[in-house]
């Protein structure tokens, strides 16, 4: 019998690309998603979509009882750092309650493998050096804290119940399926590359660059953009590695790009300048966050296929140009 996975949040950005990668290799996938930030049209053909919320414990239980499952991949979460600073307890309670309840339900239904979408936001203020798995966990936001707590919950699930898990700390997920099947469509959009693309295409007013006086080469913040299809591939490799035990991996390209470098790349690839202005710094933005992903490379052979910024921006741009309204139906 083929492998079979339950994917929460599989109608979202990273989840949908991972579902596509699982289907592409012949696995069966059931997606559980309440479509709060995801899209029905983002669920790849071949996956079964169950529209439901993680808060519906009985519904989750009923779905898990349709096992056996080779693993549960848990993407669904509240995931806006800024919003979590406004609503800390909502973020902590929602992400923790939903995650811990799901882990407990997995244990009850004898699921033996679990993959958690974790985040670079575990590492707080960051540092100039690439961040590896030994770096101190010091979340700078309730969002990051909720993921740190879920990672801890998974440690206990393993110690007490033997549930093996992979905590995958994504840095800045970006890009779009190179085959053009899927892309990024958040509302509101908070991620830099789609915002810059929309500014370049005249679909939003000029872009605000928050601060140009950081201690970075051009003064703007530096981030590690990792292609969403490379993240999907990392999930497949982490799943295989779970045969040997639980893992935690930092996932990035290992190279930082500043906000101005992203603006330059988008402008060049679009063939038009990106309207932008320098605005004051935003509270809580670390100057630099770059991953050291040597561990997953050594242990699974993972290598980002989209190692340079142009490749990442190019796929995102192609999808935005082909889907001006994202997954939404254009207004009549
Ligand atoms: N995108 C990034 O750069 C990034 C970086 C680090 C970590 N992450 C983590 O990766 C995961 C996926 O991120 P994304 O950018 O794809 O987000 P997304 O918002 O596109 O996807 C999340 C999906 O989960 C669904 N969902 C949310 N709450 C739910 C609930 N209570 N019940 C059922 N479904 C629910 C949404 O409808 C959506 O389809 C998140 O856990 C996020 O914290 C993302």
Features:
332 residues; alpha/beta; Rossmann fold; UDP-galactose 4-epimerase, domain 1; three-stranded mixed sheet; 10 helices; 14 strands; binds nicotinamide-adenine-dinucleotide
Structure description:
There is one protein chain. By secondary structure, the chain is α/β, with parallel strands linked by helices. It has 10 helices and 14 strands. It has a 7-stranded parallel beta sheet with strand order 3-2-1-4-5-6-11, sandwiched between helices. Helix 4 runs parallel beside helix 5 and helix 6 crosses helix 8. The chain is globular, with a radius of gyration of 19 Å. The N and C termini lie far apart (46 Å). The mean pLDDT is 95. The structure holds nicotinamide-adenine-dinucleotide (NAD). The site of nicotinamide-adenine-dinucleotide (NAD) has 27 residues, from helix 1, strand 5 and strand 7. The site of nicotinamide-adenine-dinucleotide has 27 residues, from helix 1, strand 5 and strand 7.
């Amino acid at each position: 019998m083929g492998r079979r996975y339950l994917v929460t949040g599989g109608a979202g950005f990273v989840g949908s690309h991972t579902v596509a990668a699982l289907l592409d290799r012949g696995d069966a996938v059931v997606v559980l998603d309440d479509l709060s930030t995801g899209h029905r049209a983002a669920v790849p053909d071949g996956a079964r979509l169950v529209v439901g919320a993680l808060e519906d414990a009985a519904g989750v239980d009923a779905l898990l009882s349709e096992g056996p499952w080779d693993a549960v991949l848990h993407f669904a979460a509240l995931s806006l750092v800024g919003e979590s600073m406004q609503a800390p307890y909502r973020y902590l309670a929602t992400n923790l309650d939903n995650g811990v309840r799901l882990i407990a339900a997995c244990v009850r239904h004898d699921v033996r493998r679990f993959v958690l979408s974790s985040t670079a936001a575990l590492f707080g203020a960051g540092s100039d050096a690439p961040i590896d798995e030994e770096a101190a966990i010091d979340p700078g936001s309730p969002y990051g804290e909720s993921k740190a707590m879920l990672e801890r919950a998974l440690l206990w699930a393993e110690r007490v119940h033997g549930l093996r898990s992979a905590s995958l700390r994504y840095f800045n997920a970006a890009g779009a399926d190179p085959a053009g099947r899927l892309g990024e469509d958040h509302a509101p959009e908070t991620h830099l590359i789609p915002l810059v693309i929309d500014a370049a295409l005249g679909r939003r007013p000029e872009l605000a660059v928050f601060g140009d006086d950081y201690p970075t080469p051009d003064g703007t913040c530096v981030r590690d953009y990792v292609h969403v299809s490379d993240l999907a591939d990392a999930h497949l490799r982490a799943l295989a590695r779970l045969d040997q035990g639980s893992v935690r991996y930092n996932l990035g390209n290992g190279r930082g790009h500043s906000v101005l470098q992203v603006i330059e790349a988008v402008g060049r690839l679009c063939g038009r300048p990106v309207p932008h202005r320098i605005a004051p710094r935003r509270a809580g933005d670390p100057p630099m966050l770059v991953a050291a992903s040597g561990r997953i490379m050594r242990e699974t052979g993972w290598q980002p296929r989209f190692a340079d910024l142009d490749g990442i921006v190019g796929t995102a741009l192609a999808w935005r140009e082909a889907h001006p309204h994202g997954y939404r139906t254009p207004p009549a």
